[in-house]
Design brief:
The structure holds two protein chains of two kinds.
Chain A lengths: L1 H14 L8 E6 L3 E2 L5 E9 L8 E2 L5 E4 L5 E2 L2 E5 L4 E6 L4 E18 L2 E7 L1 H7 L5 E18 L14 E5 L11 E8 L2 E2 L4 E6 L11 E4 L5 E5 L4 E11 L9 E12 L3
Parallel strand pairs in A: 2-11, 11-19
Antiparallel strand pairs in A: 1-3, 3-4, 3-8, 5-6, 5-9, 7-8, 9-10, 9-11, 12-13, 13-14, 13-17, 15-16, 15-18, 18-19
Chain B lengths: L1 H15 L3 E8 L11 E7 L5 E8 L9 H4 L5 H6 L12 E2 L5 E8 L11 E10 L5 E10 L5 E6 L6 E7 L1
Parallel strand pairs in B: 3-4
Antiparallel strand pairs in B: 1-5, 1-9, 2-3, 2-6, 6-7, 8-9
The chains are: A mainly beta, B mainly beta.
Chain lengths: 269, 170
């Protein structure tokens, strides 16, 4: 009875969309709007249910990419991984806007082996060597996830914010480092560079530990992929959207999931 | 002689209809993309908010290397402060698995502990709920002990808890 209910739970877990039990992944910069001659920021990176508290696992930084104000890559400094968070510094040596992102791409597979469900995650190369060629009930899905934040030294610019054309991305109508309490901000979501319409966007304010409700807001992208948010108060917000379809770029996969998360800081008036 | 008769009458009365405390705790249906059953603590509090007795603590029983079951008990922050942090878990006859959406009955024989151990006075029947990726809510029903007459008391939650009822039957 116990064993069969365990298997049932696994089967149910496999059947659910990958997102159902996903924890929130986030980058938390020490500052988002900076002045001065030689600014630095430090960034915490973690995965947790509670925003923005380090209480689950650190975010892996293997796929960290930082674009500088001229669009060129900037390297992270003093990277370290702790029990509950990863951390790194960014030297903002040039004025303008930096895009700091962890961009993950991968394959998930599930199949049956000797009557037992198997799960696997990896990439196109490891798929060939690690997943049995004639696996029973093989289901393969592809994921493309972007977790990011934005930081500006001096005057904001938009070179680093140019979309890459892959997966779900946010492009500014309102600059992401020009957000103020009580004002509306408008952004555009793109999927593979095209407007991502009718997507539901979840926006959750920081600080759940000190209140009794999530106070999440939702928005829906219009036909141009655009949506607006009026910030109820100053603070940090976590914005999230995801999309599933069958437009895979890897031939093994039948399903593709694209997700986007950003940490945005809203300043008081 | 007279007092002896009274005693007999009292004993007869007690055995004819056992005094009881019946409570229901409603866990409301919540429309969420990611739903986890709430952690719930139910206790009796003294006027100074100290805990007179724990009645129920429902939390995830599955252990992981993070200690998943007990790791989030502190999210029941008032219960944790008033009692939880002094307890060694599980608490016999009190703690148990999380409950699904619906009405959950709690029945206590007033002639047995923990109620029988209460000194006459004013108390609070307190329910606190905290849900992963959700919210938190705490409700309180004041009552007097011992029970002198049949009383139905209730309070309604707004988000994490539904209707809480307390029936006192002398």
């Amino acid at each position: 009875m116990k064993v069969s209910s365990k298997i049932l739970a696994l089967v149910v877990a496999l059947a659910l969309p990958l997102s159902a039990q996903a924890h929130k992944a986030w980058l938390l910069p020490s500052d988002t709007v900076l002045s001065g001659a030689d600014p630095w920021i430090t960034v915490d990176a973690a995965v947790s249910n509670d925003l923005f508290y380090f209480n689950h696992v650190p975010l892996r930084l293997d796929a960290l990419t930082i674009s500088g104000p001229d669009g060129q890559p900037v390297s992270a400094e003093n990277s370290a991984k702790g029990k509950y968070r990863s951390t790194f510094d960014v030297h903002l040596s040039e004025p303008g806007t930096y895009r700091i992102a962890v961009v993950n791409a991968g394959l998930f597979a599930s199949w049956e082996e000797n009557g037992k469900p198997k799960r696997w995650r990896g990439n196109a190369e490891s798929f060939a060597s690690e997943v049995p060629k004639h696996a029973r009930d093989l289901k393969v899905s592809q994921s493309a996830g972007r977790i990011e934040t934005f930081v500006t030294a001096g005057r904001p610019n938009e070179i680093a914010l140019k979309p890459t054309g892959t997966g779900l991305e946010l492009v500014p109508v309102t600059h992401p480092n020009d957000l103020f309490a009580g004002e509306a901000a408008t952004f555009k979501l793109l999927l593979d560079g095209e407007p991502a319409k009718d997507l539901s966007i979840e926006i959750i304010p920081d600080g759940i530990r000190y209140r009794d409700k999530q106070n999440e807001m939702t928005a829906t992208s219009d036909k141009d992929g655009q949506f607006s948010v009026t910030w109820p108060s100053a603070g940090r917000y976590w914005l999230h959207a995801e999309h599933e379809d069958d437009k895979t770029s890897m031939p093994q996969a039948t399903q593709r999931r694209a997700s986007y998360s950003a940490t945005l800081e809203v300043l008081p008036q | 002689m007279r007092s002896c008769l009274m005693l007999i009458l009292l004993l007869l009365g007690a055995s004819a209809s056992a005094a009881s405390v019946d409570a229901t705790v409603e866990i409301p249906r919540i429309d969420a993309s990611e739903y986890h059953r709430p952690y719930v603590a139910v206790w009796i509090e003294n006027p100074d908010h100290s805990v007179a007795a724990n009645l129920a603590v429902w939390y995830a029983q599955k252990e992981t290397k993070e200690g998943a079951g007990t790791k989030w008990l502190a999210d029941l922050r008032q219960w944790w402060r008033r009692s939880g942090r002094d307890q060694s878990l599980p608490i016999d006859g009190v703690s148990g698995a999380t409950r699904p959406v619906g009405q959950h009955q709690l029945r206590f024989d007033a002639s047995k502990p923990p109620f029988a151990a209460l000194k006459p006075g004013s108390y609070g029947f307190v329910v606190e709920a905290a849900r992963e990726v959700g919210g938190r809510e705490q409700l309180r029903i004041p009552f007097d002990w011992p029970i002198t007459e049949t009383r139905h008391l209730d309070v309604k939650g707004e988000h994490e808890l539904g209707l809480i009822t307390l029936d006192l039957n002398p």
